[in-house]
Design a protein that fits this description.
Layout: H1 3-34, H2 36-39, H3 46-59, H4 61-82, H5 85-91, H6 96-137, E1 157-164, E2 170-178, E3 186-197, E4 203-217, E5 227-241, H7 264-292, H8 321-387, H9 393-419, H10 424-428, H11 430-447, H12 455-476
Antiparallel strand pairs: 1-2, 2-3, 3-4, 4-5
Helix pairs in contact: 1-4, 1-6, 3-6, 4-6, 4-8, 4-9, 6-8, 7-8, 8-9, 8-11, 9-11
Pfam family, one: LptF_LptG
GO cellular component, one term: ATP-binding cassette (ABC) transporter complex
Subcellular location: Cell membrane
Amino acid sequence: MKKLDKLIIKTFLGPFVATFFVTLFVLVMQFLWKYVDDLVGKGLDTVVIIQLIAYTSATLVTLALPLAVLLSSIMTFGNLGESFELVALKSSGISLLRFIRPLMVVCSIIGFLAFLFANYVIPVANLQAKSLLYDITNSKPAFNIKAGVFYRDIPGYTIKVAQKDKDNQTIHQVMIFDNQSGGGDKVILAEKGQMVLTANKRFLYFILENGWRYEERGNRGYTVPGDMIRLGFKKYSKAFDLSSFAFNRLNMDLFASNQQMLNVRQLDVAIDSLEKAQTIFGKTVNAYVTVRFPFFRWKDSAWAATAPPLKVKEFENIIPEKNRRAVLDRAEQSVRETLGSLDAPTKEYSEKHSVILMHKVEWQRKFTLAAACVVMFLIGAPLGSIIRKGGLGTPLVFAVIFFVIFNIFFMIGEKMARSGVMFTWSGMWLSNIVLLPIAGFLIYKAMNDSNLFNKEFYFRIYQKVKKFLQKIKSKKQPTI
């Protein structure tokens, strides 16, 4: 490796690492902002939140890499152009393609590592992240009784306290309505009390003072009224089971069959199995149709090679008038029964076909995002040498513009591939196909020292156009 190659690689790696972590942080913040309502108020441990952020960060690596490559390549070549190092290299006879060759190799290695990461690490991270997020979103909010509000999250109980002290334990004017018993209702009223939570957070005790217990004994629905019992107390302890509020993890095997949790080899096996199962529907449809609509062809010498033309305008005229109604009713009934019997297979076929498309989309995704690293570099390197601006301002603007273009076409292509409008390969590679001609155009302009983003270049064009229009205007004016 020559010193020039080491110089350009060293110049590129610093901005790449920094922009990668910044991009990953932005994407993780976007995820947290999306699910903030599901995370807040659940009483989650710090370990659970760290695990969720770590697994989510791993799933976003392949999306952050193309943007990091694009931004860092623009910054690298922009800095070199701003300090006139590119001019010095070109004047010494080194072409732009030779200069970007080592970084092309580096970005190809990054793309290959991105594919390996997407194939072996992301399926595991997706399994952990999706299952953990499912458990969090389906867990109950943390136990929190507010003053003056009826609390009904504990099964079988309705609790209301008129006032809570600042210690969050002392409560006043307590009312507990117990309707979980098989018999009558129970109501507990107390002037004040204490809320005490056990060390394992499994049970909550209400230690009440100066109150009354009301209980109605007797079965509901009978004409004979039951007994109403009232018991007074100076101190009474009531226990509540909070096991339903505990954060529990489901078996992750329930999510393991999803296409996002599979690598390329597993996706190949799943797609092959699904396509074989899909062939069963053809036999089912054939069985339903041919039974009700038989078409017999007798092997007879009188059978004509082609059907003779009908001598009547309408098919109904062939049928005798006395049998016409019965024949048409029978045909209509057969069509209706056939369509009714095909409803369930049609729906199942559509669902199976959607699953196959999603598996194929996921298969293509592992390659398209890896290839996007190379495509983004082919855009960023010539773009940086053209704009000749370093730092984070101008390169960030251009990087965001091209990344938005990439993301829009990527989402459009994926949606079309999932719906079957486009082939899965063409839909998933749509963004790269759109950006490749742009990359070729920018490389051509950069090799020819284009003034594509030079303000003076466009100002000179404006002056020439202005003079040309003035000349035409002067020719049109009549001479006196």
